[in-house]
Design goal:
The protein has helices at about 5-20, 35, 40-55, 60, 65-70, 75-90, 100-105, 115-130, 135-145, 150, and strands at about 110, 150-155. By secondary structure, it is mainly alpha-helical. It has one domain (about 30-155): Globin-like (Orthogonal Bundle). The protein is globular and about 45 Å long. The structure holds protoporphyrin IX containing FE. Protoporphyrin IX containing FE binds near residues 61, 111 and 144.
Length: about 160
Amino acid sequence: MSRKKSLCLGLSAILLAGCASGGRRPPAVDPDSLYARLGELNGVARATDAMVNHVLSDPVILENKQLQQRAKPENVPGLKVQITVLIASRSGGPYQYTGQSMKEAHRGMEVTEAQWAAFMKDCADGLDEAKVPARERQGVLDLFASMKADIVERE
Ligand code: HEM
């Protein structure tokens, strides 16, 4: 057998083995999941981008001294990735969030009730800017609301 032919057969075998094991096939996503309805990874990332931009330009949020030190401009792209993966993983997407727990990430930040209220308003505005429909907008806000007890530390 020529070298070319045997190389070709070898490659076909590898490709067939890959298909048979389903190794490269992305995991199925429930089309009714919040993740799917948000527009999967690009939709979640776009919404996160808009939400974080609103939050980080809000004077009420910027009053938080810890935030000023911890959310430096060079950390913002990574923060957006972490939040995107967190939302994707909690909304039915095929991702696993491996960052800090919400309690760990926000420990000692002394987030107040007023800052929390401002945060939720900024996120709602970001979701509107990203043109997220009403049901999905509420889904994201409900997801955040479920984490409040781990984040707010002060009256
Ligand atoms: C439900 C609401 C919130 C969610 C889902 C959320 C999510 C996250 C995530 C995923 C991280 C990254 C953790 C890591 O790097 O392992 C993070 C970090 C951070 N969050 Fe939040 N956050 C929320 C609310 C807030 C609020 C209200 C504030 C401030 C007022 C805030 C300020 C910060 C800051 C400054 C960091 C960076 C911490 C550091 O790297 O030291 N977050 N958040």
